[in-house]
Specification:
The chain has about 450 residues and is of the alpha/beta class. Helices cover about 40% and strands about 10% of the residues. Helix 7 (about 205-215) packs across helix 8 and helix 14 packs across helix 15.
Length: about 450
């Protein structure tokens, strides 16, 4: 692509103008949590500003909310221990009690709050919902605009370690030609974004909202990246094929062919014609079908999950019980909680406090149930072949729910510009292996720059 593909000056003028105006007026919104994160909207409305304007946001949690959190954790009424010696009945009691002990005594939310406030945070109303996003521009002139979307049970906290390497590549031994302008939004109903008050906010509407958001920031052309639900949003956006979208990179690819999906649905053994990579993926998907109880509940009865709003430990155990390619709870999260490698699969760069930063964000914003509704709003198989023609890059991490074969990826993404099977990393790749993840994003989207 020519240098003119990513026009810089309108966006830069708008970004600098918004920031300068906010500083001059002293109007950075303070997000004061009450029972929910609705205060985002209230704080922004009180300034009298245009809700569709891009408004700076500053995060502040009252100490009373943190005190209440610790009190609730210590008041937990625990069930009896599981009657098995593994995690086949769910999150083991020892695991959640270890996390709760640290959460109520040693954990410090202020550290991640400071990290978030060190970044440019904004909110803008799209289709009646306030959308929060982090927007970090690169100093390099021809940087590629990129919207990166998190998944469940994640948040923008998953992406904190990849921001500077992607925005400022020369500081990490990479080329200026690999620089990105990053926009990292919170999904509707998640984190600091508003909670939809009507039905219809699934992947399709979110994908369209992201296009509005990027255009509002002055980006005439951009790429999209995502894992988990973020990968679904990127796939849907590619299916919609807006003219502003130049390509996608996903680390949660949707590649399963219809015949394979049908065989999995009825529980058939793997077809004999499968290659070794395809057989591995089939076996992983077969195992995954037994680890999707959380998705079934969220996809059918999310409003039943009142415990997520009432008990921090209930919320934590629900969010932890997410599978990867190695087991359930996800191996990286389990190892992070215990601070040592469990079952042979390390946490990578994920720490126990990283895990608690994410869970605490869900608690403080009371978004356990509103986030779950995103599954209720999704009406298709997340793993079924994406069937898109927009240029696409796929990184198939070994610890993902399933490691998508190149053969399936080529069928699902008709203009596959990059495919790689990194040597390590799993479902939470940006958290677990941020350096490797950054290399994958750079390599995967590099063909779009030429």
């Amino acid at each position: 692509m020519s240098d003119n593909t990513f026009p810089q000056s309108p966006s830069r003028r708008r970004f600098v103008g918004v920031a300068a105006a906010a500083v001059a007026a002293g109007s950075l919104s303070q997000l004061a949590f009450a029972q929910t994160n609705q205060a985002i909207t209230d704080a922004a409305s009180s300034t009298g500003a245009d809700k569709t304007a891009v408004r700076p946001l500053r995060i502040h949690v009252p100490e009373s909310q943190l005190t209440d959190l610790r009190r609730r954790i210590k008041a937990t009424r625990w069930p009896d221990r599981e009657v098995v010696t593994d995690d086949s009945q769910g999150v083991p009691l020892a695991m959640i009690q270890e996390l709760a002990r640290h959460w109520s005594t040693d954990y410090d939310w202020r550290k991640v709050e400071a990290k978030l406030n060190a970044l440019p945070n904004f909110v803008t109303e799209i289709d009646g919902v306030d959308i929060h996003f982090i927007h970090v521009r690169s100093k390099h002139e021809n940087a590629m605009p990129l919207v990166v979307t998190h998944g469940w049970p994640g948040s923008v906290i998953e992406q904190l370690k990849i921001i500077d390497p992607l925005v400022n590549p020369t500081a990490y031994g990479a080329s200026a030609s690999d620089a990105f302008h990053l926009v990292i939004p919170s999904l509707p109903g998640y984190g600091f974004s508003g909670k939809p008050r009507e039905v219809g906010w699934g992947p399709e509407r979110t994908a369209r909202a992201w296009v509005v958001m990027m255009k509002r920031l002055g980006y005439a052309k951009f790429a999209a990246q995502g894992g988990d639900l973020g990968g679904i949003v990127a796939n849907v956006m590619a299916k919609q094929a807006p003219p502003e979208l130049i390509g996608i990179h996903v680390n949660f690819p949707a590649t399963v062919p219809p015949a394979i999906a049908k065989a999995l649905q009825v529980g058939d053994p793997a077809p004999a014609s499968l290659s070794a990579d395809e057989r591995l993926a089939y076996d992983q998907l077969s195992a995954l079908s037994k680890r999707r109880a959380y998705a079934l509940e969220q996809g059918t009865r999310p409003q039943t999950l009142y415990g997520l709003a009432d008990s921090p430990v209930a919320l934590a155990s629900w969010l932890l019980d997410h599978p990867d390619g190695y087991g359930q709870p996800a191996a990286a999260l389990t190892s992070a909680v215990f601070g040592r490698t469990i079952n042979g699969h390390s946490a990578g760069d994920v720490t126990r406090d990283d895990v608690l930063d994410d869970i605490t964000l869900y608690w403080l914003t009371n978004t356990g149930v509103s986030a779950a509704r995103f599954y209720w709003e999704s009406h298709f198989n997340f793993y079924a072949a994406a069937d898109v023609s927009v240029p696409a890059a796929v990184s198939a991490f070994p610890g993902e729910n399933y490691q998508a074969p190149q053969s399936w990826s080529e069928q699902a993404y008709h203009n596959l510009i990059y495919y790689n099977r990194p040597e390590k990393g799993g479902h939470f790749a940006a958290w677990e292996q941020p350096r490797l993840f950054v290399e994958e994003v750079r390599a995967g989207l590099r063909p779009l720059r030429t």
